[in-house]
Design brief:
Length: 103
């Protein structure tokens, strides 16, 4: 329950600005990512992440990598991407919620 002293919730075009953002797992029109065999690149090579960013047309700050290997997440973070080490559905949901993202 919200505190009676809390600032009023702001709304824009009917959307509560404090509500979590709900995102699909992948953008509906996202092109398939290049594979390591087609590009000759593998994570955690920074060139692999740069190729994926270029393919998607996104800046590193716009991308979140979820991977089960910490070395891959660390490499993505070094390039300015956000990253979560996958350790199960529960921890992933918590990490996404902490970022304001809800599946």
């Amino acid at each position: 329950m919200r505190s009676p002293h809390a600032a009023p919730r702001r709304r824009t075009a009917g959307r509560d600005l404090h509500a979590p953002i709900r995102l699909p797992l992948t953008p509906p029109a996202a092109p398939p990512l290049p594979t390591k065999t087609s590009q000759g690149l593998r994570k955690p090579d920074p060139a692999a992440f740069r190729a994926a960013l270029a393919h998607l047309g996104r800046a590193p700050a716009e991308v979140l990598l979820v991977d089960d290997r910490a070395v891959n997440v660390e490499a993505a973070r070094a390039l300015g991407m956000d990253g979560i080490v996958f350790a199960g559905a529960g921890p992933l949901a918590e990490a996404l919620a902490a970022r304001g993202l809800v599946l």
